[in-house]
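A protein record in our archive is deliberately plain, so that people and models can read it alike. The record that follows is passed on verbatim for readers who wish to inspect the format.
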Amino acid sequence: MTTITAVTAHDVRFPTSLTMDGSDAMNKDGDYSAAYVVVHTDDPAVKGYGFTFTIGRGNDLCVEAARQRGLPLVGRSVEDAVADLGGLALAQRAHARVADGTPPIDGLTPAQRFFLANATLWRANISPEYQRTLAGIDPHSPRELRVHGPISNLEPFRDAFGLPDDAPILRPPGERIEIW
């Protein structure tokens, strides 16, 4: 099993404001910047990369947010994280076949009920202390990540709730991960 050993976030800035390169009416002194994230594993051949572009202001916040979001992943298996996405995608496709033609219930379509049921499955009121205990003994990702991680990649989730491609709960279209 491949284990996540670290998540590093880097504050990358390009001093474009010095020559006014890339300036516009709203951001005449912006410096193109990025929060660049690397997920390291115990297998040198397996790494993950991601980034978020900013105009400089707030880049430090994006970097710190990435660091904080990465903390619960350290010590977790990559396979576990991928299994949640693959399993939910497979279950959703099976549900769509079975529920085809089923009318809405209480105003919710079968697809909406599917995703709400998945979120309900992982719902729990866990104290920060207990969450820290779980992080040390449970080999799985935290519950919140087991819900938000997979759905942020699934087009059927976007379709079920009529969300725009830039909805905050979704990854940008070109960055969504598809398994199977």
